[in-house]
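[09:14] KT: can someone run the structure on this one? pasting the chain below
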Amino acid sequence: MTGSKLYREYRLKAYLNMTHYIAIDGNNGQIHPHTWEFVFVAIIGGDNFIEFRTLENIIEGYMERFQDQTLNDIAPFDITNPTIENVVDYFAEELRGRVKTVGAELVSVEGSETPTRSYIVNFRNDEEFIKGVEDIKKEQINQIVNDLVEQIADNIKHRN
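[09:31] RB: done, structure tokens below
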């Protein structure tokens, strides 16, 4: 493989069986189940490598406590209405810091409670995400400069 990559992008899916009800105007709706689908997109810098299992362990380990539960019984959804928007917003913020611990940046989280409806949190325009990508670019530029200096040194050494 030739050339350096700016980043590698990983896409993972996770499924949770959860029930919930939505409160509207102070009235609780009917409790109902969903198989929620979540799609996580993360990047890592350049030619760095991370095993899918590493990201899966982070995501699955976090989400495990919600499996087969009623969301309204689990913080913060015992206070916050567990709409698809609130659930995805919460999961995105919670998982963002966790994937950073392995050198990845969370790009987006998409959540669906039905096949026809999705809600997406996208960090691409977020200052923290942009700074992370800038750091990746700086790391790549430094690597390119180091590689060029090494090639020049090797060429000089071989000429003499």
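[09:33] KT: thanks! Helices lie at 52-63, 84-100, 127-159.
[09:34] RB: yep, looked fine to me
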